[in-house]
Amino acid sequence: MVTIALDRVSVRLGRRAVVEQVSATLTPGSLVGIIGPNGAGKSTLVRAMLGLLPTTAGTIAIDGDPVARMPRAAIARRIAYLPQGQALHWPLEVRRVVALGRLPHMAPLSGLAPADAAAIDRAIARADIAHLAGRTATELSGGERARVLLARALAVEAPALVADEPLAALDPGHQIDVMRLLADEARGGALVVAVLHDLTMAARYCDRLLLMDGGRLMADGAPMEVLSADRLRAVYGIRAMVTESEAGPMIVPLGRAE
Q: Where does the secretion signal sit in this chain (predicted)?
């Protein structure tokens, strides 16, 4: 199990402050959504969590170990990462792409062990891409590629998963499938962190939401506490209907706030 603790974290990119004074403790067994308008600092925050960007103030720790002092391979074994907008440039078979998720567990120049092959099979099944396994990854549609990359992250079988905009390029049916999968991972004891733009999906499937705006954490709590109509007006600049349906919460933007 993995716990990520952020204590007054700030990140600058060049001269611009992108994340400012963010504190939160993310614990196992929960699906945590990070939401906010474009440019709010969401992706920068998750990259800092993974040690991919240095902090300019504050600390980030994984199970008490400072991220800044951890080897990259150690972080990769504890937290699987699905970046946003990642392209596939090499004409690899889909199964070989998924197999890349096992690299954090492998010694240099070593081949796949039976345990690696089993993990790859499980990831392919969980991402529902068995029918694509023999295809060439560069020949797939955008939605198919997104699911292959999710399978690659799942193949790590790390106790935590960070997914940056995992619903991009997916049709509504596959968006539901991915959110259910992420929720199932959390119910199985993993810490799952997802950057999301679809507020209804975030409200329906996440256990907790972090709402960011201008690099700052504006709210942290249960989805329907965070997603109030007044807060959506203040942060997103929209009028929205926030309601409960038989299927779960619904957040319906009605127009720009006047």
A: none
Give the range among 18-22, 84-88, 176-180, 253-257 with minimum mean pLDDT: 84-88
Buried b (16+ CB within 10 A) or exposed e, 62-81: beeeebeebeeeebbbbbbb
**CB count in 10 Å sphere of residue 245:** 9
**CA–CA separation, 192 and 206 (whole Å):** 9
**Average pLDDT estimate for 232-236:** 96
**Domain 4-256 adopts which CATH fold?**
Rossmann fold (3.40.50)
β-partners of residue 81 are 162
Assign 109 a pLDDT band (cuts: 50, 70, 90).
Answer: low
User: The pTM is what?
Assistant: 0.93
143 phi-psi bin (left φ>0, alpha ψ -120 to 50, beta other): alpha
On whether the CB atoms of residues 190 and 159 are closer than 8 A, the answer is yes
H helices within 52-198, ranges in order?
A: 72-78, 94-99, 114-126, 142-155, 172-187
Q: How confident is the model over 195-203, as a mean pLDDT? A: 96
Say if CB 51 and CB 78 are below 8 A apart: no
Matching residue, tokens 């529902």: 128
Question: Order of strands across the sheet with 57-62?
Answer: 16-26, 4-13, 57-62, 65-66
